[in-house]
Amino acid sequence: MGVILPALSLAILHIAGDNVAVVPAMASLIGNGIYATVFLSYVIFGSVVAGTSAWIGAKSGRELAVVVKRLFGNQGKMLLALAVLAVSVPASSLTGGYFAGHMLNNLTGIPYLCAVPVCIISCSLLAAGYGRELLQISNYVALLFIPATAIMLVLQSDTSAIIPSINLFSFDYISWPLVLALIGYNAGGMRSALVVEAGTYLADRNYKGVYLAVLAKFFEGSFTLLLAHLSLTSGTNAIMPLPVIANRVFDSWFAFGFNGSLLCVLINTMVPAMLVNAKQLSVITGLSFWQALTLSVMLVWGGSFIDLEVILMLMSGTGLTMIAFVVFVAYSLHKHGCNKSQ
Q1: What is the CATH number of the domain that holds 297?
Q2: Secondary structure of residue 206 in the 3-state scheme
Q3: Is residue 135 part of a domain?
Q4: pLDDT tens for residues 152-192?
Q5: For burial by CB atoms within 10 Å, which of 31, 125, 199, 204 has the most?
Q6: Is residue 149 part of a domain?
Q7: Model's pTM, two decimal places?
Q8: How many domains does the chain have?
Q9: Which range marks the domain in which residue 114 is found?
Protein backbone atom coordinates (compact mmCIF):
# COMPACT_ATOMS: atom_id res chain seq x y z
CA MET A 1 0.00 0.00 0.00
CA GLY A 2 2.99 2.27 0.59
CA VAL A 3 3.67 2.23 -3.15
CA ILE A 4 0.21 1.56 -4.62
CA LEU A 5 -1.56 4.64 -3.23
CA PRO A 6 1.21 7.08 -4.27
CA ALA A 7 1.31 5.37 -7.68
CA LEU A 8 -2.44 5.84 -8.08
CA SER A 9 -2.05 9.51 -7.10
CA LEU A 10 0.74 9.99 -9.65
CA ALA A 11 -1.35 8.22 -12.30
CA ILE A 12 -4.28 10.57 -11.62
CA LEU A 13 -1.93 13.55 -11.99
CA HIS A 14 -0.86 12.14 -15.36
CA ILE A 15 -4.41 11.92 -16.75
CA ALA A 16 -4.35 14.48 -19.55
CA GLY A 17 -5.57 15.29 -23.04
CA ASP A 18 -4.00 12.21 -24.61
CA ASN A 19 -5.87 9.87 -22.25
CA VAL A 20 -9.31 11.50 -22.32
CA ALA A 21 -9.39 12.98 -25.82
CA VAL A 22 -6.72 11.77 -28.27
CA VAL A 23 -7.06 8.04 -27.58
CA PRO A 24 -10.91 8.03 -27.61
CA ALA A 25 -10.91 10.10 -30.81
CA MET A 26 -8.50 7.73 -32.55
CA ALA A 27 -10.27 4.57 -31.35
CA SER A 28 -12.99 4.84 -34.01
CA LEU A 29 -10.38 5.46 -36.72
CA ILE A 30 -8.05 2.51 -36.14
CA GLY A 31 -10.54 0.03 -34.62
CA ASN A 32 -9.16 -2.91 -32.65
CA GLY A 33 -5.63 -1.67 -33.26
CA ILE A 34 -6.23 0.92 -30.52
CA TYR A 35 -5.76 -1.76 -27.84
CA ALA A 36 -2.22 -2.73 -28.85
CA THR A 37 -1.44 0.92 -29.59
CA VAL A 38 -2.38 2.01 -26.06
CA PHE A 39 -0.77 -1.04 -24.46
CA LEU A 40 2.57 -0.38 -26.15
CA SER A 41 2.42 3.40 -25.67
CA TYR A 42 1.70 3.39 -21.94
CA VAL A 43 2.31 0.01 -20.35
CA ILE A 44 5.49 -0.88 -22.27
CA PHE A 45 7.30 2.14 -23.73
CA GLY A 46 5.65 4.64 -21.38
CA SER A 47 6.81 2.63 -18.37
CA VAL A 48 10.37 2.54 -19.72
CA VAL A 49 10.42 6.32 -20.24
CA ALA A 50 8.84 6.99 -16.83
CA GLY A 51 11.25 4.60 -15.11
CA THR A 52 14.23 6.23 -16.82
CA SER A 53 13.03 9.71 -15.83
CA ALA A 54 12.49 8.61 -12.23
CA TRP A 55 15.95 7.02 -12.18
CA ILE A 56 17.47 10.37 -13.19
CA GLY A 57 15.81 12.01 -10.20
CA ALA A 58 16.72 9.17 -7.81
CA LYS A 59 20.32 9.08 -9.00
CA SER A 60 20.94 12.83 -8.98
CA GLY A 61 18.61 14.00 -6.23
CA ARG A 62 17.88 17.06 -8.36
CA GLU A 63 15.28 18.37 -10.82
CA LEU A 64 15.71 17.63 -14.53
CA ALA A 65 16.66 21.19 -15.51
CA VAL A 66 19.34 21.30 -12.79
CA VAL A 67 20.74 17.92 -13.86
CA VAL A 68 20.92 18.97 -17.51
CA LYS A 69 22.63 22.26 -16.68
CA ARG A 70 25.20 20.53 -14.47
CA LEU A 71 25.95 17.93 -17.13
CA PHE A 72 25.91 20.09 -20.27
CA GLY A 73 25.94 23.72 -19.11
CA ASN A 74 23.74 26.46 -20.56
CA GLN A 75 23.75 24.78 -23.96
CA GLY A 76 22.15 21.69 -22.40
CA LYS A 77 19.52 23.85 -20.73
CA MET A 78 18.72 25.36 -24.14
CA LEU A 79 18.46 21.91 -25.75
CA LEU A 80 16.13 20.76 -22.97
CA ALA A 81 13.90 23.79 -23.54
CA LEU A 82 13.74 23.05 -27.29
CA ALA A 83 12.99 19.36 -26.71
CA VAL A 84 10.23 20.15 -24.22
CA LEU A 85 8.65 22.80 -26.44
CA ALA A 86 8.73 20.50 -29.48
CA VAL A 87 6.25 18.26 -27.67
CA SER A 88 4.50 20.69 -25.35
CA VAL A 89 3.38 23.28 -27.93
CA PRO A 90 1.61 20.85 -30.33
CA ALA A 91 0.21 18.93 -27.33
CA SER A 92 -1.14 22.22 -25.95
CA SER A 93 -2.71 22.99 -29.33
CA LEU A 94 -4.57 19.69 -29.15
CA THR A 95 -5.52 19.75 -25.47
CA GLY A 96 -6.24 23.42 -24.84
CA GLY A 97 -7.17 24.42 -28.37
CA TYR A 98 -8.70 21.65 -30.44
CA PHE A 99 -10.37 19.50 -27.77
CA ALA A 100 -11.07 22.11 -25.07
CA GLY A 101 -12.54 24.34 -27.79
CA HIS A 102 -14.92 21.57 -28.85
CA MET A 103 -15.91 20.92 -25.24
CA LEU A 104 -16.61 24.60 -24.54
CA ASN A 105 -18.63 24.76 -27.76
CA ASN A 106 -20.57 21.67 -26.67
CA LEU A 107 -21.32 23.06 -23.20
CA THR A 108 -22.07 26.71 -23.98
CA GLY A 109 -22.83 26.95 -27.68
CA ILE A 110 -19.97 29.43 -28.22
CA PRO A 111 -18.77 29.04 -31.83
CA TYR A 112 -15.71 26.80 -32.04
CA LEU A 113 -13.50 29.50 -33.61
CA CYS A 114 -14.27 31.75 -30.63
CA ALA A 115 -14.13 28.97 -28.03
CA VAL A 116 -10.53 28.04 -28.88
CA PRO A 117 -8.94 31.44 -28.07
CA VAL A 118 -11.19 31.76 -25.00
CA CYS A 119 -9.81 28.46 -23.66
CA ILE A 120 -6.17 29.25 -24.48
CA ILE A 121 -6.23 32.79 -23.08
CA SER A 122 -8.16 31.73 -19.96
CA CYS A 123 -5.67 28.94 -19.23
CA SER A 124 -2.79 31.35 -19.81
CA LEU A 125 -4.22 33.82 -17.27
CA LEU A 126 -4.67 30.99 -14.78
CA ALA A 127 -1.06 29.96 -15.44
CA ALA A 128 0.03 33.52 -14.68
CA GLY A 129 -1.56 33.31 -11.24
CA TYR A 130 -4.96 34.90 -11.82
CA GLY A 131 -8.12 33.21 -10.55
CA ARG A 132 -6.46 30.65 -8.28
CA GLU A 133 -9.82 29.91 -6.65
CA LEU A 134 -11.26 28.96 -10.06
CA LEU A 135 -8.32 26.63 -10.67
CA GLN A 136 -8.84 24.97 -7.29
CA ILE A 137 -12.53 24.44 -8.09
CA SER A 138 -11.53 23.02 -11.47
CA ASN A 139 -9.16 20.58 -9.74
CA TYR A 140 -11.95 19.29 -7.48
CA VAL A 141 -14.45 18.99 -10.34
CA ALA A 142 -11.89 17.12 -12.48
CA LEU A 143 -11.59 14.46 -9.76
CA LEU A 144 -15.20 13.51 -10.51
CA PHE A 145 -14.20 12.39 -14.01
CA ILE A 146 -12.84 8.99 -12.94
CA PRO A 147 -15.85 7.82 -10.85
CA ALA A 148 -18.20 9.28 -13.49
CA THR A 149 -16.38 7.25 -16.14
CA ALA A 150 -16.72 4.11 -14.02
CA ILE A 151 -20.48 4.68 -13.77
CA MET A 152 -20.65 5.24 -17.51
CA LEU A 153 -18.80 1.95 -18.11
CA VAL A 154 -21.42 0.13 -16.05
CA LEU A 155 -24.35 1.83 -17.78
CA GLN A 156 -22.93 1.32 -21.28
CA SER A 157 -24.01 -2.28 -21.72
CA ASP A 158 -21.85 -2.87 -24.80
CA THR A 159 -18.70 -2.47 -22.71
CA SER A 160 -19.46 -5.46 -20.51
CA ALA A 161 -17.26 -7.66 -22.71
CA ILE A 162 -13.69 -8.17 -21.53
CA ILE A 163 -10.97 -6.82 -23.79
CA PRO A 164 -9.73 -9.88 -25.75
CA SER A 165 -6.07 -10.54 -24.92
CA ILE A 166 -5.41 -11.19 -28.63
CA ASN A 167 -6.27 -7.54 -29.32
CA LEU A 168 -3.67 -6.39 -26.78
CA PHE A 169 -0.86 -8.26 -28.49
CA SER A 170 -1.97 -8.18 -32.13
CA PHE A 171 0.16 -5.90 -34.29
CA ASP A 172 -1.98 -6.30 -37.41
CA TYR A 173 -3.77 -2.96 -37.16
CA ILE A 174 -1.52 -1.04 -34.80
CA SER A 175 -0.90 2.64 -35.57
CA TRP A 176 2.83 3.18 -35.11
CA PRO A 177 2.67 6.96 -35.71
CA LEU A 178 0.08 7.17 -32.91
CA VAL A 179 2.28 5.01 -30.67
CA LEU A 180 5.17 7.44 -31.19
CA ALA A 181 2.91 10.47 -30.66
CA LEU A 182 1.54 9.05 -27.39
CA ILE A 183 5.05 8.19 -26.23
CA GLY A 184 5.92 11.81 -27.03
CA TYR A 185 3.03 12.92 -24.83
CA ASN A 186 4.48 10.75 -22.06
CA ALA A 187 8.06 11.95 -22.47
CA GLY A 188 7.50 15.61 -23.23
CA GLY A 189 6.03 18.66 -21.57
CA MET A 190 5.76 18.53 -17.79
CA ARG A 191 5.42 14.76 -17.38
CA SER A 192 9.14 13.89 -17.45
CA ALA A 193 9.90 16.75 -15.09
CA LEU A 194 7.12 15.58 -12.73
CA VAL A 195 8.41 12.01 -12.72
CA VAL A 196 12.00 13.18 -12.19
CA GLU A 197 10.76 15.21 -9.20
CA ALA A 198 9.07 12.11 -7.79
CA GLY A 199 12.35 10.24 -8.14
CA THR A 200 14.19 13.15 -6.53
CA TYR A 201 11.79 13.22 -3.57
CA LEU A 202 12.31 9.49 -3.00
CA ALA A 203 16.03 9.57 -3.80
CA ASP A 204 16.98 8.30 -0.34
CA ARG A 205 14.62 5.30 -0.49
CA ASN A 206 16.54 2.87 -2.70
CA TYR A 207 14.98 3.83 -6.03
CA LYS A 208 11.44 3.45 -4.73
CA GLY A 209 10.55 6.36 -7.05
CA VAL A 210 11.42 4.23 -10.09
CA TYR A 211 8.98 1.49 -9.06
CA LEU A 212 6.41 4.16 -8.24
CA ALA A 213 6.71 5.75 -11.71
CA VAL A 214 6.46 2.41 -13.53
CA LEU A 215 3.43 1.31 -11.48
CA ALA A 216 1.75 4.70 -12.03
CA LYS A 217 2.22 4.32 -15.79
CA PHE A 218 0.66 0.84 -15.60
CA PHE A 219 -2.39 2.28 -13.81
CA GLU A 220 -2.60 5.15 -16.31
CA GLY A 221 -2.36 2.73 -19.24
CA SER A 222 -5.06 0.49 -17.80
CA PHE A 223 -7.44 3.44 -17.37
CA THR A 224 -6.67 4.65 -20.91
CA LEU A 225 -7.42 1.15 -22.25
CA LEU A 226 -10.85 1.33 -20.60
CA LEU A 227 -11.51 4.71 -22.23
CA ALA A 228 -10.43 3.32 -25.61
CA HIS A 229 -12.69 0.29 -25.14
CA LEU A 230 -15.61 2.48 -24.09
CA SER A 231 -15.18 4.69 -27.16
CA LEU A 232 -14.66 1.82 -29.60
CA THR A 233 -17.67 -0.20 -28.47
CA SER A 234 -19.95 2.84 -28.44
CA GLY A 235 -20.05 2.91 -32.23
CA THR A 236 -19.75 6.70 -32.41
CA ASN A 237 -17.48 8.46 -34.90
CA ALA A 238 -17.61 11.83 -33.12
CA ILE A 239 -14.49 13.97 -32.65
CA MET A 240 -14.92 13.52 -28.90
CA PRO A 241 -16.73 10.22 -28.23
CA LEU A 242 -16.95 10.46 -24.44
CA PRO A 243 -19.40 13.42 -24.35
CA VAL A 244 -21.58 11.63 -26.92
CA ILE A 245 -21.66 8.50 -24.77
CA ALA A 246 -22.42 10.59 -21.66
CA ASN A 247 -25.37 12.22 -23.42
CA ARG A 248 -26.59 8.76 -24.37
CA VAL A 249 -26.40 7.01 -20.98
CA PHE A 250 -26.98 9.90 -18.53
CA ASP A 251 -29.87 12.31 -18.22
CA SER A 252 -29.17 15.88 -19.31
CA TRP A 253 -27.95 17.18 -15.94
CA PHE A 254 -25.59 14.27 -15.25
CA ALA A 255 -24.30 14.46 -18.82
CA PHE A 256 -23.62 18.17 -18.37
CA GLY A 257 -21.74 17.40 -15.16
CA PHE A 258 -19.65 14.70 -16.86
CA ASN A 259 -18.81 17.00 -19.76
CA GLY A 260 -17.93 19.75 -17.30
CA SER A 261 -15.55 17.43 -15.44
CA LEU A 262 -13.95 16.45 -18.77
CA LEU A 263 -13.41 20.12 -19.63
CA CYS A 264 -11.84 20.63 -16.20
CA VAL A 265 -9.42 17.75 -16.87
CA LEU A 266 -8.34 19.52 -20.06
CA ILE A 267 -8.04 22.86 -18.25
CA ASN A 268 -5.99 21.35 -15.43
CA THR A 269 -3.63 19.89 -18.03
CA MET A 270 -3.44 23.08 -20.05
CA VAL A 271 -2.67 25.53 -17.24
CA PRO A 272 0.69 24.01 -16.20
CA ALA A 273 1.45 23.32 -19.88
CA MET A 274 1.14 27.02 -20.71
CA LEU A 275 3.41 27.80 -17.77
CA VAL A 276 5.95 25.30 -19.10
CA ASN A 277 5.69 26.79 -22.60
CA ALA A 278 6.26 30.33 -21.34
CA LYS A 279 9.23 29.39 -19.16
CA GLN A 280 10.95 27.39 -21.89
CA LEU A 281 10.35 30.14 -24.47
CA SER A 282 11.84 32.58 -21.98
CA VAL A 283 14.95 30.38 -21.69
CA ILE A 284 15.37 30.26 -25.47
CA THR A 285 14.50 33.85 -26.38
CA GLY A 286 15.37 35.78 -23.23
CA LEU A 287 11.91 37.35 -23.22
CA SER A 288 10.15 38.32 -19.99
CA PHE A 289 7.51 35.96 -18.63
CA TRP A 290 4.55 37.93 -20.01
CA GLN A 291 6.17 38.32 -23.43
CA ALA A 292 6.97 34.61 -23.55
CA LEU A 293 3.44 33.74 -22.39
CA THR A 294 1.96 35.92 -25.16
CA LEU A 295 4.19 34.22 -27.74
CA SER A 296 3.12 30.85 -26.35
CA VAL A 297 -0.56 31.79 -26.77
CA MET A 298 0.05 32.74 -30.40
CA LEU A 299 1.94 29.50 -31.16
CA VAL A 300 -0.66 27.28 -29.47
CA TRP A 301 -3.56 29.15 -31.10
CA GLY A 302 -1.94 28.85 -34.52
CA GLY A 303 -1.31 25.14 -33.96
CA SER A 304 -4.97 24.53 -33.19
CA PHE A 305 -5.81 25.21 -36.85
CA ILE A 306 -3.62 22.31 -38.02
CA ASP A 307 -5.34 19.01 -38.79
CA LEU A 308 -5.43 16.53 -35.90
CA GLU A 309 -3.60 13.76 -37.77
CA VAL A 310 -0.90 16.20 -38.94
CA ILE A 311 -0.23 17.33 -35.36
CA LEU A 312 -0.04 13.71 -34.17
CA MET A 313 2.38 12.91 -37.00
CA LEU A 314 4.51 15.90 -35.98
CA MET A 315 4.46 14.75 -32.36
CA SER A 316 5.58 11.27 -33.36
CA GLY A 317 8.82 12.87 -34.54
CA THR A 318 9.27 15.36 -31.71
CA GLY A 319 8.39 12.67 -29.20
CA LEU A 320 11.26 10.52 -30.45
CA THR A 321 13.55 13.51 -30.01
CA MET A 322 12.47 14.01 -26.41
CA ILE A 323 12.87 10.30 -25.63
CA ALA A 324 16.37 10.31 -27.12
CA PHE A 325 17.24 13.35 -25.00
CA VAL A 326 15.99 11.73 -21.77
CA VAL A 327 17.93 8.54 -22.55
CA PHE A 328 21.06 10.57 -23.34
CA VAL A 329 20.75 12.46 -20.04
CA ALA A 330 20.41 9.15 -18.18
CA TYR A 331 23.45 7.72 -19.99
CA SER A 332 25.53 10.82 -19.28
CA LEU A 333 24.46 10.80 -15.63
CA HIS A 334 25.44 7.13 -15.34
CA LYS A 335 28.79 7.74 -17.05
CA HIS A 336 29.86 11.05 -15.53
CA GLY A 337 28.04 11.18 -12.20
CA CYS A 338 26.44 14.39 -10.87
CA ASN A 339 24.62 12.42 -8.20
CA LYS A 340 23.13 13.60 -4.95
CA SER A 341 26.29 12.97 -2.98
CA GLN A 342 28.30 15.46 -5.04
Answers
A1: 1.20.1740.10
A2: coil
A3: yes
A4: 888 876 544 555 556 556 677 788 888 888 887 776 555 55
A5: 199
A6: yes
A7: 0.86
A8: 1
A9: 4-336
